[in-house]
Amino acid sequence: MTRSALLASCLFLAACGDPSSGSEVETPQLPTGESGSETQAPQGTLESDPLVEDAAQDMATRLAALPAPYSEADLANGARQFRRCTSCHTIGEGGPHRVGPNLHGLFRRTAGEAEGFNYSPALREAGFDWTPDHLDAWLADPRGYIPGNRMSFVGLRDADDRRDVIAYLLLETEL
């Protein structure tokens, strides 16, 4: 199971419970309010899955170890935002290039130097190593950051979305 699939499973199970555990999630009931309508409150408990808890704790520990502001990221949002990128990029170790290069090990390489990918001259000549700061500027405005590159993505305007995607990539592509 990939890290992103494991993270998604952990987030789902934390929210919904593990159907394989045999526990049932009861519809919570809250006390009746002044309007006479019932509100909902928890009644039952869910059995915990040690593997899910360990994976979630590991992910939380790894996130906390990232430098600020990435340690404050919302990984679920980062994964959600990254889905926009998956039509062009893969992130798994040894994964294929698509329209864009595989991003595994992105923060350990120089722009325009993923082996086997045909970059535009503008990116091959960019002359910088990928860092979270470079990726943030790139994601904000790819065409403006390196004029003449072939990436058609318009960018992520929201700074929190960029932070979340970068944290997601730091955790998914660098270990």
From TrEMBL:
UniProt-annotated stretches for the region Disordered: 17-49
Name this protein carries in UniProt: Cytochrome c family protein
Swiss-Prot/TrEMBL keywords: Electron transport, Heme, Iron, Metal-binding, Transport
Keyword NADP applies: no
UniProt key word Protein transport: no
Database matches in InterPro entries: Cyt_c-like_dom, Cyt_c-like_dom_sf, Cyt_c_1A/1B
Gene3D superfamilies reported for this sequence: Cytochrome c-like domain (1.10.760.10)
Source organism, top-level taxon: Bacteria
Species of origin: Hyphobacterium marinum
Pfam name, any one: Cytochrom_C
Amino acid composition bias (Polar residues), ranges on this chain: 20-46
Domain Cytochrome c: 73-173
Lineage of source species: Bacteria, Pseudomonadati, Pseudomonadota, Alphaproteobacteria, Maricaulales
